[in-house]
Write a structure and sequence with these properties.
- The chain has one domain.
- The protein has a 3-stranded antiparallel β-sheet with strand order 1-3-2. The protein has a two-stranded antiparallel ribbon with strand order 4-5.
- It is built from 5 helices and 5 strands; from the N terminus they run αβααββββαα.
- It starts with 12 loop residues before the first helix and ends in a 10-residue tail after the last helix.
- With 123 residues, it is of the alpha+beta class.
């Protein structure tokens, strides 16, 4: 659910700036992509085994938007597409994008600090 007063301008800033978006996916995101057969997405995920928690359950960290076969982060999301002649961007995996993308922005202050114009009524 978007924050009150937020209206996405489709500028793509949140997807372009590595520091703007979170660099991980949840267990649920990763399992969903496996079930959906989304090898195109999984290619950009580095899985790090963190061992087991106190209950013996395996723990993993899913770093997203890394160069395939490495743990080197890309400069932005590889699934961000620019709309021709509109200077707007769309998410090509919108229906299955990670939780952190679906929950952006979680805080107005943070969004404004990274330059998000979604709270700017003049644009």
């Amino acid at each position: 659910m978007p924050l009150e007063g937020f209206n996405c301008r489709q500028c793509g800033l949140c997807c372009k700036l590595r520091g703007a978006y979170q660099n991980y996916a949840t267990d649920e995101d990763y399992r969903r992509w496996q079930l959906e057969g989304r090898e195109d997405i999984l290619a950009f995920v580095a899985v790090n085994d963190l061992g087991c928690d106190m209950n013996g359950d395996e723990r993993r960290l899913y770093n997203v938007w890394v160069e395939p076969g490495t743990e080197i982060y890309l400069d932005g999301c590889p699934f961000l597409l620019e709309l021709p002649d509109e200077h707007k961007f769309i998410c090509s995996i919108h229906d299955t994008k990670p939780w952190h993308c679906r929950s952006f922005p979680s805080e107005r202050e943070y969004a404004e600090r990274i330059g998000c114009r979604g709270f700017d009524a003049t644009h």
